[in-house]
TrEMBL record:
MF-aspect GO terms: holo-[acyl-carrier-protein] synthase activity; magnesium ion binding
Encoding gene per record: acpS
EC number, as in UniProt: 2.7.8.7
Catalytic activity: apo-[ACP] + CoA = holo-[ACP] + adenosine 3',5'-bisphosphate + H(+)
Positions of Mg(2+) binding: 8, 58
The name this protein goes by in its record: Holo-[acyl-carrier-protein] synthase
Superkingdom of this protein's organism: Bacteria
Length: 118
């Protein structure tokens, strides 16, 4: 049974400007594991990756019905599985199956999350 659905759309330029204004923005959004992936990418891919993770975390918080605030960006981790597909891990939601899709265009990143009872 589906417990929640969330979606988020973010402009890549907004992420780029946030990094310029506050260099610690990356550390605020990404977990240590996510930062390890981020650090291995070129500049264009870094913006897409960060925007995708930002959108996925916002979409998760919407699906959970809490919004960011009750959950922090650091509580939600989005890492690639062995095939490169994103997977979300949130300790306090381990009893649910979490489905995530992330996509990018030249201007936007979009993520959708579905929470399902196991």
């Amino acid at each position: 049974m589906i417990k929640g659905i969330g979606i988020d759309l973010i402009e890549l330029d907004r992420i780029k400007q946030s990094i310029k204004r506050n260099p610690r923005f990356v550390q605020r959004i990404l977990t240590r594991g996510e930062q390890n992936c981020y650090d291995r990418m070129n500049n264009r891919r870094k913006i897409e990756f960060l925007a995708g993770r930002f959108a996925a975390k916002e979409a998760f918080a919407k699906a959970a019905g809490t919004g960011i605030g009750t959950l922090s960006f650091q509580d939600i981790e989005v890492l690639p599985n062995e095939y490169g597909a994103p997977e979300i891990t949130v300790e306090s939601y381990a009893s649910l199956s979490i489905w995530v899709a992330i996509t990018h265009s030249e201007q936007y990143a979009v993520a959708q999350v579905i929470l399902e009872e196991r």
